[in-house]
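Hi F.,

I've been meaning to write this up properly since the lab meeting, where we talked about keeping a consistent format for the predictions we share between groups. The idea is simple: the sequence comes first, exactly as it goes in, then the C-alpha cells exactly as they come out, then a line or two of notes. No screenshots and no reformatting. I'm using this chain as the first example so we have something concrete to point to.
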Amino acid sequence: MSCVPKKMDDGSYPVPDNSKLVQKFSTSLFNGRWYITAGQNELFDIFPCQVHFFTETKPGTFFGKLNWRIEEPDGEFFIRDAVQQFIQDPKQPAHLVNHDNEYLHYEDDWYIVDYAGDNNKEGVPPFAFVYYRGNNDAWEGYGGVVVYTRASKLPVELLPRLRKAAEKVNYNFDRDFTATDNTCENQDSREKTLLREKFAGKVALQTEEQVQAAATRFRGNAINGVKAQQLFVKQEIQQTEKAVTELSNKVREFEQEVAKQ
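Output, unedited:
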C-alpha cells in the first residue's frame, strides 16, 4: 500500500469511554451462528449475507469465521470470508482485541456497548451491539458499529435497546443505521450473464479513499504468518486447528441449508 497515502485518523471513531460499555461480558456469547442485521458504516457494515460463525476455545478467547458478500458494479456478487482471533482485554471485559496481524498490520478493537445472551432473563432476542475501530497501513482510525443477532432479520423487539445503545456512542439508530439483507440467495449462471450484459465492463477504483476502503474490507483474508508463529510459541496451535475445523463444519452446514432454499 506504499503507493497510496495513508488515511489518517479524523476522529470519527474515537475509543469509547468505559462508562458507555457493559461492565461484565463473557466471550461464551460468541459461539455458533450470528448474523449482522444492521450496521452504521456503509463502507464496511451493511453488506448482504453477513453470517458469521464463532467458537470459544477458552474463556476470554474466541475465533470467528466472518462471511459477507460484495456486489460488483454489474450486480454480480462474490463472497469473502476471514478467520479472526479475538482476545478479551483482562482490564476491560467489554474490549475484544484482534491485533498482531500480518496483512496491512491491521488491528481491530471491538467494544460491547450492549448485549443479551441466549435465554436471557429480559426475554429479548439475543443480540450484541458492537462498536469497533481499527488501524492498518492504509487507514488509521477506521470504524463502524454493527448489530449481531441470532435471527437473520433484525427483531423489532430489540429497537428500544438498540436506540439506547446507539445514543451511548453518539448515534441515532433510526437515522444512522441500515438493516442488512441476509436472505443469502444464490445467483445462477443465467442471472450472472444478464447482469454482465447490463453492465459491460468493470468500474475501476478511482480515488484514494476507495482503495483504502477496499484494502480495509479485505483485512483478515491473507494467511497470517505472524500470528501463526505466535500461536506456535504459545502452544495454541491445536486449539486453533480445532477452532478452524469447527468453524468450517458450521459453514458447511449453513451452505447446505442455503442450497435447499
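Notes:
The beta strands are 32-39, 51-58, 61-71, 77-89, 92-98, 107-116, 127-135, 140-149, 178-179.
Residues 72-79, 189-208, 214-235 have pLDDT under 50 and may be disordered.

If this format works for you, I'll send the rest the same way.

G.
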